[in-house]
Amino acid sequence: MEKKAVIETEELTKTYDGQVAVDHLSLKVYEGEVFGFLGPNGAGKTTTLLMLLGLTEPSSGKARVLDIDPSREAIRVKGMIGYLPENMGFYRELNAWETLRYIAELNALPRDVAEDRIEKALETVGLLDAAEKEVGAYSRGMRQRLGIAEVLVKEPKVAFLDEPTLGLDPDTANRMIELVEGLSRVRGMTVLLSSHLLHQVQKICHRVGIMISGQMVAQGPIDQLAEEKLGVGKEKHTLEELYMRYFQET
């Protein structure tokens, strides 16, 4: 049975003042997979996410998320997806419980359903003991985990995560990667993970796309791309080696 594509783009392009940020991007992300969206800073990853979220309109081309055009029905798309931006913004004076209750209210969740989801989410991300502390006192890692808890409370079908481990220490970053993996493996979410930390992506992604200077230069399973580009099996390469080959050639 053929997998269903829940994120699709066709020749998606975005220009700013004559500069091409995303250049004719065609992409499919399938139901239940973790897709690693890779590339250096300035490659066009965040701009692509913003178009998929309906936060900026494409200059040309098409995009669909859960069979919805985000440029035409942005509010509807936002109601069905979860989004963890690179820099999470929370009301500093609220604690974790209050923050997640606010999110639940925005998504019209019944109070009893919301309370159950919030408690389970805080326990999953390891913030239950710090749930009464104001978010303004949280470390970056704690704020990132609260962002994952927000996704869990909403229970979306698709989650967009933009550099979720950036600026975290190795232990906290590994914990974050485990949480991201659980979104797909345990909860069945489709996850589009934008990152340039390749060793972390290799641990959990079913497929990857490598974006350089606004163009998608490769996409597919890591082993397949390595065999095509490097002529090696899965035990003889790292994603860093594969990425650098594409980067140098581009």
Walk me through this protein's architecture.
A six-stranded mixed sheet has the order 5-6-7-3-8-9, with helices on both faces. Helices cover 38% and strands 25% of the residues. The longest helix has 16 residues, at 170-185. By secondary structure, it is an alpha/beta fold. A hairpin with a 2-residue loop joins strand 1 and strand 2 (19-30). The mean pLDDT is 90. The chain has two domains: 5-80 and 158-249, P-loop containing nucleotide triphosphate hydrolases (Rossmann fold, 3-Layer(aba) Sandwich), CATH 3.40.50.300; 91-155, no CATH class. The protein has helices spanning 45-52, 74-78, 96-106, 111-124, 140-154, 170-185, 198-204, 222-230, 239-249, and strands spanning 5-16, 19-30, 34-38, 60-65, 81-84, 158-162, 190-195, 207-212, 215-220.
